[in-house]
Amino acid sequence: MRNVTTCLLTLVISTLLSISVFAQKTLTGQVTDQEDGKSLPGATIRAGEIRGTTTDANGRFTLRNISDNIGTLEISYIGYQTIKLDAAKLSEGKPLEIKLQKSTFQADEVIVNATRVTDKTGMAYTNVTAEALNKQNLGQDLPVLLNFTPSLVSTSDAGGGVGYTGIRIRGTDATRINVTVNGIPYNDAESQGVYWVNMPDFASSVSSIQIQRGVGTSTNGSGAFGATVNISTNQFRKEAYAELNNSYGSFNTFKNTFKIGSGLIKDKFTFDARLSRVSSDGYVDRASSELHSYYLSGAYFGGKSFVRVNVFSGKERTYQSWNGVPEAKLRGDREGILSYIDRNGLDEKDAQNLVNSNDRTYNSYTYKNEVDNYRQDHYQVVTSHTLTNNLTLNVNGFLVRGLGYYEQYRKNDKFSNYNLPDVISGSDTISRTDLIRRRWLDNYFYGSTFSMDYNSFKKLTASVGGGYTYYTGDHYGEIVWARNAGATENEQRYYFNKGIKKDFNIYGKLYYQFTEKLNAFGDLQFRRVSHKIDGKDNEMVQMNFDQSYSFLNPKAGLTYQLAPQSSIYASYSVGNKEPNRDDFAASTTRLFPQSERLNNVEAGFRMQQGKWMISANYYLMHYKNQLVLTGQINDVGNSIRVNVPKSYRTGIELEGAVAFNSHLKWNANATFSQNKIANFTEYIVNYDTGGYDMVNHGKSDISFSPNIIVGSQFTYSPKKNLEFALLTKYVGKQYLDNTSSETRRLDAYFTNDLRLTYTVKPKWIKEISFNFLLNNIFSERYESNGYTYGYISGGALTQENFYFPQAGRNFLVGVNFHF
């Protein structure tokens, strides 16, 4: 089947390259402020799904070769009401005079504007609309919904897209991807990771997402070292509404969502609410998820001021499937399975579980409450104030409260591992017992962000912004049951440590239009961060870290307009990033982590012509002291990330879209890259000698960094209310570590999904929509994540590879009622 789909894709590409496009008409015009008549430079003109431009310094625009079948011409500008015109009724003989009205109802857009980029920033980015998300939103997490955006790879521990999911962009993992919600940091302050499972069905409250690849523009929160995901949930809806969305699918997956909104009350107030439940048994054995969330929002719109209060929460209970599937089990290698059992000392119950389970759905955990149980509550106050016609002040405050644990059953564990004395029973000394432990995280994260935005409505726009955040997190473990308890108390605490992290940043940004065609962008950020950890970790090792860092992150870009609908750009950016909690906790005196630095060059062009558009972006991400796994371990056997002096990622990202006609459209993207460590040395633990064997691999590939990523979306709409889509994703091979070893890799995979959307509008309801999604229609057997470790014992090298298989053919079907 892979050969069939490859041929189909080749045929389509050939069709695109050979297609003849016939010009229809050219539209010109000027966009101005309705009140004072001043021009609005940088206003967005959108024609259909794939065409668009921005106004020049005088507010003028030109769109060439526009077909009548594009539907609507949409004109928008930050802080102004958007208007839509029927393209079929527009003639090319007379320039359009478009007047926009300023309104605080659009202040939601202003809040995130300071941390987003435009075509004039000189950086690579992708905008994702709520409409695009809703077509896919049948219960799977946000990483899966974003799967077809450029350079992005998604993964799911449970194999079905519900529960623990993650993304990598340009090969960089979640700890290097900055995520904000309404301009407010979302990454966990200590680990710097993003746990999407804590925000189930969040896509149902999203109004837009911007993904910036590379360093991106200055933002709040952890340093962006591969991408920035900027999420906005704020959306003004003038009319009252209600929605009931229900879906069901494979692996007993359910999603139930209820949304309601008041519309505009007395021209000043709106209220919105959402309640969601998502559950799934998971593709992997016992990898179930039970997820609940809500979202509440209230807004006040004054003449010059806007205030919105958001309260949202996610609660998750997921059965752990963190260990993956051993390679021998995945391959159905019975002899290898028996060898795995022998060298890892599995008891009879665990051995039978390994032998008798399905090769691809094996889960090593069998204890019924081997679960992750966590709740996270968010409180946000976002405000915008128009100080003058040119100056806007945005001030936001937030609080995040997190509390939860994961529970584990431990067989025959040592009392000494929990700082407990052996149990004396008569003449016997018992030093081990079965027990159940819980590892807790109890944290608070709060702070404020702000921006002061200036718009001259001529050549200059600028902003000054930043924020301060404070995090405090208690990490502790409790024993809740023991077979031989001795003096052990119920919920006896056996370790405790506290982490405190403070983060301050301030930045200044500006855009300046030198000439009608040349625009410059500048951005300078100062960031000061401190991280303190005190106490004992879960290995009973004393931790005492107090580290502070000061970073200066400059960015600059140029954009040159070659023609009204084509431009070239280039930018240079610097990003710095502090080590995360695990880097400190696992470090040794000899191998203490240093901060990382990234120098990022982006350059490319964008062009639109007739019914098609295309863009190409070249990037070079050069790292100094990037932290990577080398095989080295600390005194208790945990892996250590070590700074490597030089490494880089370089590649080209291609995007294209074509409207063959009013019914058939195609969007595609492809990334071709090299991701290298300049000189990598592998350390292999040698239990025979008590040291390491070292292997120098020279220039090697960075782990989990495919050289090819391709995404494609074909949509066919035979009728206005009916759409079919073929969604294709190709991800090249990835290495599990940094050795470029072909025996430690994820194979390339090629998946195809089929989506059907159908809407009806009966008299008794606003709209009913039906969505059907058939994932992996050819049942491609693939793994999207894994890990590896090796050691030498008895003179022989043992390499243990583990994989996270993804589901074969599966489906989701949904019915949505819009009132």
From TrEMBL:
Domain TonB-dependent receptor plug: 120-227
Keyword tags: Cell outer membrane, Ion transport, Iron, Iron transport, Membrane, Receptor, Signal, TonB box, Transmembrane, Transmembrane beta strand, Transport
Domain of life: Bacteria
Keyword match Signal: yes
rRNA-binding is among the record's keywords: no
Record domain TonB-dependent receptor-like beta-barrel: where: 343-776
Membrane topology: Multi-pass membrane protein
InterPro entries: Beta-barrel_TonB (IPR000531), Beta-barrel_TonB_sf (IPR036942), CarboxyPept-like_regulatory (IPR008969), Plug_dom (IPR012910), Plug_dom_sf (IPR037066), TonB-dep_rcpt-like (IPR039426)
Signal peptide limits: 1-23
PROSITE patterns to which the protein is assigned, alphabetical: TONB_DEPENDENT_REC_3
GO cellular component: cell outer membrane
Compartmental location: Cell outer membrane
GO-annotated molecular function: siderophore uptake transmembrane transporter activity
Major location category of this protein: membrane
Protein family per UniProt: Belongs to the TonB-dependent receptor family.
PANTHER family with a match to the protein in the record: FERRICHROME IRON RECEPTOR-RELATED (PTHR32552), FERRICHROME OUTER MEMBRANE TRANSPORTER_PHAGE RECEPTOR (PTHR32552:SF68)
Protein name: TonB-dependent receptor
